[in-house]
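Final report, closing paragraph on structural work. Over the funding period we assembled a curated collection of sequence-structure pairs, and we close with a single example.
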Amino acid sequence: MDALPQKRIFKKDSCLENLIDERQKINSINKKIQYFPDPSTEFCNGIKWGSYKEVFTPAYWKLQYLIHEESEEKIENRLGTDILEEISACMLGGFGIPSNVGIAAFHRLKQNNLLKPGASKTKIQEVLSEPIQTSSGNTVHYRFVNQKSKYLALFLNRDDIYDIPTEDAYELRKWLLQIKGIGLKTASWITRNWLESDRVAIIDIHLLRAGRLTGIFPEVNDINSHYLFLESQFVEFCEKLNVKASIMDAIMWHQMRRSNSFALKMLNTIN
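Its predicted structure, as stored:
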């Protein structure tokens, strides 16, 4: 089987004398590639293992995972320093809100000491109504201020806010689904982040497209109606690939987000 080419790369923001020889990492990956099954081997449910050179095959995703393991940049899923912050951060993101805007709103509320039990809806709304600067330096206005302020205040004023079950993934997700404004995707997002759980998955449009192109998901029109089924298929895929689902879904999400137009073109060829 062909090996990955060896190369030298610069560390970000480093000088020429800090040039790093990446040969050891590439050699390590190449040794693992040698044990990849033949591309024609059935992986699961009629899906072929495929070539690691072909995008969206199981072999391709396994290679991406191996590359991530060898990289110095590790995926950090947690957004908050405690469970209340984690829930709040995820509630501030989601549909219609770019991730950098949701994160900026989270930090703004945290700076104003508003992510604590008993926080006022009025105060939250006032802060979210002000222009927010994102990590890229852009100044934006947060969307859905009234709705998000209401949901966040309701959560932070729950009587059982000190009794959040954080030991078991399914129990935590079940508890989160009681919160107004949190559905299966957001509840899974919080659970995955806080517990680093490999028993749940964040099935959004990016992961759905990746799963369709890989062959692990059937064509579905409504993620919410099929969420638990899609999740079980993804978790099974990760188990057979011998990778952590909590890492694999992040790898897929980032790749699909960057290659969105290409992925859409490929999807049109199989639909």
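Residues 80 and 86 are 5 Å apart (CA to CA). The chain has two domains: 1-12+20-75+223-271, 83-195. We thank the funder for supporting this effort.
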